[in-house]
Design goal:
With 296 residues, this protein is an alpha/beta fold. It folds into 2 domains: 2-179, no CATH class; 191-294, no CATH class. Helices cover 44% and strands 14% of the residues. It has 10 helices and 10 strands. The chain has helices at residues 13-26, 38-41, 79-95, 101-113, 115-123, 134-139, 152-190, 206-211, 255-262, 282-294; strands at residues 2-6, 30-34, 46-48, 54-55, 60-61, 196-198, 219-224, 227-232, 267-270, 276-279. A 5-stranded mixed β-sheet has the order 2-1-3-5-4. A 5-stranded mixed β-sheet has the order 6-7-8-10-9. The longest helix is centred in the middle third of the chain and has 39 residues, at 152-190. The protein is elongated and about 80 Å long. Belongs to the MYG1 family. This is Metal-dependent hydrolase. It holds the Pfam family MYG1_exonuc. One of its GO terms (cellular component) is cytoplasm.
Amino acid sequence: MLTVATHSGTFHADDVFAYAILKAATGGDLTLVRTRDGAVLAPADVVFDVGGVFDAGARRYDHHMRDKPLRTDGAPYSSAGLVWRDFGAEAVRGLLPAAGDEAVQSVWQALDAGLIRDVDLMDNGATTPMSGHFSALLEAWNPTFAEEGRDETEAFLAAADLAGAVLLRTCARAHADVLARREVAEAARASEDPAILVLDRRVPWEEAVFALGLAQVLYVVRPAGNDWTCSAVPPEKGSFAQRRPLPDAWAGLRDEALAAVSGVADATFCHPARFVCGARSREGALALARGAVAGR
């Protein structure tokens, strides 16, 4: 059983997240103490966001001192980022028990650069506060002046439950990105034509295509419910343009009209913007992709 300690009184997103991370890393085998009394803090196994000390070896994770801990790029840490640095990988393993070591590291890095860093920056006033920011929403769990008698630690734990749920889902999505990258890489290796990527599941492909540097891929074929689609790859991530748009003659056509022009009998549609078209079968969508490569 690990005893973890943070300050009493008003809590912020960083100490809430730090606790959620420790809970995930230990499988919930921990006891929380909230105090500002140094004598009570001293015997705790982990102390975060209080105490005036950052010493990873002693498991002390405050960041409120003049010589505050910084990331390599100069961005300030909060207690969430400091705890994530040392306990994040174990938290990912606890939340995603099926993930291998390489996936755990990738998920850790994704959160460190995203959700956790964002909490760090908000807590340090290094980004613009917004009422709808997740940090602000978590802090809304603090008892208000009109809730006299509401227990602060109960409120902290309720906020930590929400933070833990968000941590789990963010890890799960980051892990899905890792798995998608693997599937896209395997599909690229198996492709008969480097311009066409065929996925047999509806895997999100755009992030992976750019992460893997698949510069030759023009079209991605994958299932969509009972049908299949052929999507044109953008020139850069997030762009609404295409490396090569679908043929102009297909734009806006549906069913028989598209089948007649494309030569694909089960073709179903082509978007007027020429970034996606579809067919009823895998073979039909692949035929559309081949036709698009040939410029038909």
